Each structure stands twice: as structure tokens, then as C-alpha cells.
């Protein structure tokens, strides 16, 4: 069975995850894009020999969300239910689950994600971070990376939502700093103690143009949820 909605109608993670720390006192950078999806379908495959596993979350006919360019000539590309079930508008997260501590309800993991628009442009990135149990069977993941990018090699350089809305993917740089978060409820209250299927997942992310020498990946209070609420 699928787990119930994590938050009805919400596209923001319940918990703030500060992934991008300002290292210089005067230098700064702007959050230039964000995404959020609900009702992704998650599976976890536990390797009984190693005690480690792989978590995947993919778009289904029930999934919905948006990809948004913030500020300036921004725009919001919409994904209504029925629009993210496979090519061309797919959503995929793949994250390892290692160093599992079922008592403390913690683990680490690195992974990749890809989101496609209606005509071949792809938002992708790799990241690393931490899993944590946050109560009532809910599990949270927060990760960050420095190689997020909008790849238009098979598209047209404009991010087109399958349900409407578009924006230019030209940010003046090849790569962006980014952070992602996922929130879901495990079928069992035991933290990653067994393989499972068909859990409903909420995913959010932000992208930032790095100011040279100004940003370091770290852990101070820049909330993905807060950024998306203020857009």
C-alpha cells in the first residue's frame, strides 16, 4: 500500500535543511531556481549481506510539482498529475543508504537526480548527505552538491512545463550549487531495517549561482522550504 500524503497540497519539506553556508562576511549569492514534487513513488532495496541499500524515487501518474526560476525574468513550469510518469517528463532520484544505525535512526548516502521538461531539457545533479528518522516513521534526507546543471543538449534551452509555464535555462554559468531534501514515511517504524516498495515521497530542491570564493557547502540555516515559500 502507498503511504498517505506527507503534507496535503504541500510542496515544501517540513524541516529546514541548511546546506549552503556563506563563508565570506560580505560576499553572497542568490537562489536562482527551485523545484518541488509530491507523490513520487519510492522503493528501498536492502542488501542483507552488506547491510546497505539503495533508495529510488520516481514520478508516477499521481505525482505533481513544479520547477521555478526565481527573480528577474523568472517563471514556473507546472507538472500536474499524469504528466511525470516516464519519458519525456520524468523525475528520478537514486540515493545510497549506508552506515545505517537503526537505533539512532541515522544513515548517510550519496546520489543523483534528474528531472526532464516537456521537450528534452534535463535538470540533473549529484549530492551527498544524511538520512534521519524524525518521528512517527517519517524519514528525512538532506543533501548538497556543487555540480547541479540544466542540460539543454537534447532540448531547446527553455524549460517547458508539461502542464504550462516556461523559463530560460541560461543562467550565465555551466554549473550551480544545489541542495535537495526528501521526506517520506517508511512502511515499518524500523529505520531502513528491510526492503520496501511504494512509499509516497515529497522532494524539494534549490539551485544557487556561486559567488567565487564566497560559498562553501556546510550546515547553516538556509531552508529549502523557506526559499520555496517566499518565491
Task: Jot down its keywords.
globular; mainly beta; 231 residues; 1 helix; 14 strands; eight-stranded antiparallel beta barrel; two-stranded antiparallel sheet; single chain
> How many beta-strand segments?
14
Order of secondary-structure elements: EEEEEEEEEEEEEEH
N/C terminus separation: 34 Å
Oligomer: single chain
**Main β-sheet description:** 8 strands, antiparallel, barrel
Percentage of residues in helical conformation: under 10%
Average predicted confidence as pLDDT: 82
Number of helices: 1
Number of domains: 1
Give the overall shape, derived from the CA principal axes. Answer: globular
Uncertain runs are 1-28, 214-227
| Strand line-up across the major sheet | 2-3-6-7-8-9-12-13
Secondary structure class reads mainly beta
What is the alpha-carbon Rg in Å?
17 Å
- As a percent range, the share of strand residues is over 45%
What does the secondary structure layout of this molecule look like, with pairings?
Elements: E1 20-22, E2 31-47, E3 52-58, E4 64-69, E5 75-79, E6 91-101, E7 106-116, E8 122-135, E9 138-151, E10 158-160, E11 166-168, E12 176-185, E13 196-208, E14 215-217, H1 224-230
Describe this structure in words.
It is a single chain. By secondary structure, the protein is mainly β. It has one domain (20-230). It has one helix spanning 224-230; strands spanning 20-22, 31-47, 52-58, 64-69, 75-79, 91-101, 106-116, 122-135, 138-151, 158-160, 166-168, 176-185, 196-208, 215-217. It starts with 19 loop residues before the first strand and ends with a helix.
Amino acid at each position: 500500500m502507498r503511504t498517505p500524503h506527507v503534507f496535503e497540497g504541500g510542496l515544501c519539506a517540513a524541516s529546514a535543511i541548511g546546506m549552503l553556508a556563506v563563508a565570506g562576511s560580505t560576499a553572497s549569492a542568490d537562489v536562482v531556481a527551485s523545484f518541488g514534487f509530491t507523490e513520487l513513488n519510492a522503493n528501498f532495496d536492502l542488501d542483507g549481506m552488506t547491510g546497505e541499500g539503495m533508495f529510488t524515487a520516481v514520478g508516477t501518474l499521481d505525482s505533481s510539482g513544479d520547477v521555478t526560476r526565481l527573480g528577474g525574468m523568472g517563471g514556473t513550469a507546472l507538472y500536474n498529475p499524469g504528466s511525470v510518469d516516464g519519458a519525456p517528463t520524468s523525475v528520478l532520484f537514486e540515493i545510497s543508504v549506508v552506515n545505517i544505525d537503526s537505533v539512532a535512526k541515522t544513515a548517510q548516502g550519496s546520489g543523483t537526480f534528474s528531472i526532464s521538461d516537456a521537450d528534452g531539457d534535463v535538470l540533473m545533479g549529484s549530492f551527498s548527505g544524511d538520512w534521519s528518522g524524525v518521528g512517527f516513521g517519517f524519514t528525512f534526507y538532506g543533501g548538497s552538491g556543487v555540480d547541479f546543471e540544466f542540460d539543454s543538449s537534447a532540448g531547446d534551452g527553455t524549460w517547458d512545463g508539461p502542464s504550462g509555464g516556461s523559463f530560460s535555462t541560461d543562467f550565465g554559468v555551466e554549473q550551480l550549487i544545489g541542495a535537495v531534501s526528501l521526506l517520506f514515511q517508511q512502511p515499518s517504524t524500523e529505520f531502513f531495517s528491510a526492503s520496501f516498495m511504494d512509499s509516497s515521497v515529497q522532494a524539494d530542491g534549490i539551485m544557487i549561482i556561486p559567488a567565487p570564493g564566497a560559498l562553501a557547502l556546510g550546515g547553516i540555516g538556509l531552508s529549502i522550504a523557506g526559499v520555496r515559500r517566499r518565491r
